[in-house]
Specification:
Helix content: 25-40%
Order of helices and strands: EHHHEEEHEHEE
CATH class: Alpha Beta
Shape: globular
CATH topology: Aminopeptidase
CATH architecture: 3-Layer(aba) Sandwich
CATH superfamily: Gcn5-related N-acetyltransferase (GNAT)
Structural class: alpha+beta
Distance between the termini: 27 Å
Number of helices: 5
Number of strands: 7
Largest sheet: 7 strands, mixed
């Protein structure tokens, strides 16, 4: 079900991320940071794993392995596939990668205004580590999940 993205996937990844994050533009009054990423460049620095359904890109998780944790840079599910458990599957996939690499923790950050995302992270065992002000009144939430 999962496959690692290749450079040939960069445009499709950008399109998926744009569609997935579009709903947050009116909430925060600007494009979320993942919508501004050059995914061709990101693929050279991070691992991006994809879920495809019937040949269509349905979701992705972008990660970076550190010695003591797996950093989740981005989780995105196409609006057509949201609410069907793909976000949980993507997070579970990252957890499996972290365990296989011997990491005891996963970490991520998100915008506090992305309420459904925050709720998903909390339901899947992530806890709030800290909150920091960000960009014109926003708040960045730093979250982690222990695998011990």
């Amino acid at each position: 079900m999962f496959r690692e993205a290749t450079p040939a996937d960069a445009d499709r990844i950008g399109e998926l991320v744009g569609a997935a994050y579009a709903k947050w533009v009116p909430v925060i009054g600007r494009e979320p940071m993942p919508m501004k990423v050059d995914y061709a460049a990101a693929l050279s620095r991070h691992r991006i794993d994809l879920i495809e359904v019937g040949g269509a890109l349905a979701g992705l998780i972008e990660t970076l392995l550190h010695p003591d944790h797996l950093w989740i840079e981005n989780v995105a599910v196409h609006p057509q596939w949201q609410g069907r458990g793909l976000g949980r599957q993507l997070l579970g996939h990252a957890e499996g990668r972290a365990r296989a690499a011997g990491c005891a923790q996963l970490r991520l950050l998100t915008n506090a205004a992305f309420a459904s995302n925050v709720a998903l992270y909390e339901r899947t065992g992530y806890r709030l580590d800290r909150a920091e002000p960000f960009h014109l009144g926003g708040t960045t939430l730093y979250m982690s999940k222990s695998l011990a």
